[in-house]
Amino acid sequence: MSCPPLDDRPDPATHGLEMYCVGGAVRDARLGIDSVDRDWVVVGATVERMLARGFRQVGRDFPVFLHPESHEEYALARTERKSGRGYTGFEVHADPGVTLEEDLRRRDLTLNAMACSVQGELIDPFGGAADCDAGCLRHVSEAFVEDPLRVLRTARFLARFAPRGFFIAEATRALMLSMVARGEMRDLVAERVWQETARALAEASPEAYFMALHECGALSELMPALADHETLAIGRLAAGAPPADAMQRFALFTSVLEEATLETLCEALRVPNGWREEAVLLVRSLAWLERAEAFTPEAVGSWLQAIDGWRRPERVSRVLDTLALLWPEVDRASLEQAHAAGLAVSPQTLMAEGYRGGELGRMIGQRRREALAAALGAGPQ
Description:
One of its GO terms (biological process) is tRNA 3'-terminal CCA addition. The protein has 381 residues and is an alpha+beta fold. Helix content is 49%, strand content 9%. Helix 12 packs antiparallel against helix 13 (273-291), helix 13 packs antiparallel against helix 14 (297-306) and helix 14 (297-306) packs across helix 18 (357-376). The termini are far apart. It has a domain at 1-127: Beta Polymerase, domain 2, CATH 3.30.460. It has helices at 24-31, 47-52, 100-105, 128-134, 149-161, 170-181, 190-201, 206-216, 218-222, 230-236, 246-254, 259-269, 273-291, 297-306, 314-326, 332-343, 347-352, 357-376, and strands spanning 18-22, 39-43, 56-57, 64-66, 73-76, 79-82, 90-93, 115-117, 122-123, 136-137, 167-168. Strand 4 and strand 5 (73-76) form a beta hairpin. The strands form three sheets. Strands 3-4-5-2-1-8-9 form a seven-stranded mixed beta sheet. A two-stranded antiparallel sheet has the order 6-7.
């Protein structure tokens, strides 16, 4: 299949418009992948004409509209001219004279620079179909170097399609290297770096994303906290966390760091609190495992305290899920049984026995230690 299935029913909003399905839907159809979202480019139209047909304008930097019923995106064909550094330094030009080929030329990779007419004809001026068939991620034009975000996007597409045997073209790799060498990565804001990274962590092969960035030098620029640990961190992603659990994958990737360095990385990338917390808990657990000579009541108690397992009992199972991927020999059953036994200690029962204030807190700790000792049994586990 070269083009995605298109709805040929009469549509008053689009009747008479010269429009083309573009981007991901066309690429995915070529690759035999189901695609939910479709984007459209409209050639020869104006903002006023789109608004008169009931479209709602949503683009601030260039004219993008939502269909009045389907809510699919329709953008006026446009060109871009570099006017400054970074991924925001562009002047956008959209008017009825911009052609479809000019619009496609500004895109990043050839597999994203194909279009399909409403009659089902594939328009492919830059060889995207052949690159799809060959598994090649290739830049459309030398304008690739004008946007440093394209380095990350190329790496992310590699993470998505690596299981299909995709690779980055040597000429594109050379451009990525040159962009890093010129310091272009420093123009990216943390939020955009994190957005691409979080999306890559949910792809089929996230290790391919980080390896591509490592090989062109971008990873050390974007995540200097990982200096001297990049290869090991990438290897941790092979531990087997599922694509649906990108947070767990982030924890695995950063588990090579000490807690203070991890916090520095999370702060620099503006990592959301939930992701940061999961990574920190894994790092604390690994540090505890490396110190613990045996699962004594004291050792297990210190671990549960370190991850706040008494007040946040739901953390224990979650941490053990991730820990087991890196340290499969850990005795999970013993730890879960000990935790359950400690949780069974009831502050209400102790209050009924007359304990209050600081004495109540000390007694809870004592009873929990006794419960851990009973659950773990005598001697090393």
